Structures are given as structure tokens and as C-alpha cells.
Amino acid sequence: MEWLRGGKREVSLTLNMETRGSRFVEDVEIRTRELTPGSYKLQLRTTDNATGQNVEREIEFLVVERKESDKIGS
Question: Which of 44, 41, 45, 38 lies closest to 60 in space, CA to CA?
Fold first, then answer.
């Protein structure tokens, strides 16, 4: 997994997960608090180690600065 911000900053993370079943589902949480406001791209690549087959997906998302009135407890 990697996310990019305008091609200037790249962060890469590798997760190794295995299952004996034919289907695997996992939720991934991205903590955006440390990210500066802007447009980001999340690229996911999954490899089936048994067959060598790869699947890739790309999701674009926007990080915005929260207004004081939108904060919890305000």
C-alpha cells in the first residue's frame, strides 16, 4: 500500500496476511490527522502467493482541515 501527495511525498507499507480460504476480507484504517490538507491517492496491490496473480486498485481522497465548529464537543 502506498499513498502519494502530488508526487512529492510517498509512503509505503507492506502487510503480510495469509488465509487458507478462497476469500479474505480486511478493513484498513487511514489516520489522516498527521496528513496536511490536500489531494491524496491510495494505491492497493494484492498478490495471491499460490497463483502469483496480482490485483491493483486506486482510490483518490481529499484531506481537509476541520473547522472549529465541526470538532467533536464544540
Answer: 41
Chain centroid, CA 27 distance in Å? 10
Mean pLDDT, rounded, of the chain: 76
* CA–CA gap between residue 40 and residue 6 (Å, rounded): 7
CA dist 38 and 63 (Å) reads 5
For residue 64, give every residue at least 6 positions away whose Cβ sits within 8 Å of its Cβ, in sequence order, or none: 37
DSSP state, residue 66 = P
Among candidates 47, 36, 46, which has minimal Cα distance to 9? 36
pTM of the model: 0.57
Dihedral, CA of residue 32, residue 43, residue 29 and residue 49, to nearest 10? -150
